[in-house]
Amino acid sequence: MRRLVLLPLLFLLLAAAPGCVRRGLVVESEPPGAEVWIDGDPAGLTPVRLSFSHYGAREIVLSKGGYALVKRLQDIQAPWYERFPIDFLTENLWPGTLVDERYFVYTLQPLPPEQADPDKVYERAKAMQEP
Question: What is the H or E stretch that residue 125 is in?
Fold first, then answer.
């Protein structure tokens, strides 16, 4: 009789303390202070930290004056506990919080002097317009 009472009580306890997976993405750059866009949306200046809800490929773009643009298609694979059917347990029944934080560091390359100087870029553009 006691087992019959404990089993539903255990189930209620597990249902009352649902699991949670906290997913985070950290993008850093060398040098810091680059503008970051993730999937076409502005995310802020590096270092930037944000959360995400699903795994898969993300387009990450970094831009900083005087440096070449960095554009990467970054694949974010799900960890083992986020794959079917285990993900149901970790998302709904696991009594704690699992943290999955991904770090990506990109090195920005300086532009050559003729491309970094805005006046020289303007002169080249103007020369290209002339017939």
Answer: helix 118-129
Spatial neighbors of 21 by CB under 8 A, at least 6 apart, are: 81, 82, 90, 91, 97, 98, 99, 100
Render pLDDT for 44-84 as a digit per residue (tens, 0 to 9): 999 999 998 889 999 999 999 889 999 999 999 988 888 88
Residues forming a β-bridge with 58 = 74
H or E segment at 88? helix 86-88
The pTM assigned to this predicted structure is 0.71
Q: Kindly state the tokens that stand for 67.
A: 């440096």
| Of residues 105, 123, 103, 104, the one with CA closest to residue 114 | 123
**14-18: long-range contacts at Cβ-Cβ below 8 A with a sequence spacing of 24 or more?**
14/93, 14/95, 15/93, 17/95, 18/91, 18/92, 18/93
Beta carbons of 25 and 76 less than 8 angstroms apart: yes
Q: Are 38 and 58 in contact (CB under 8 A)?
A: yes
Instruction: Check if the beta carbon of residue 60 is closer than 8 Å to that of residue 29.
Output: no
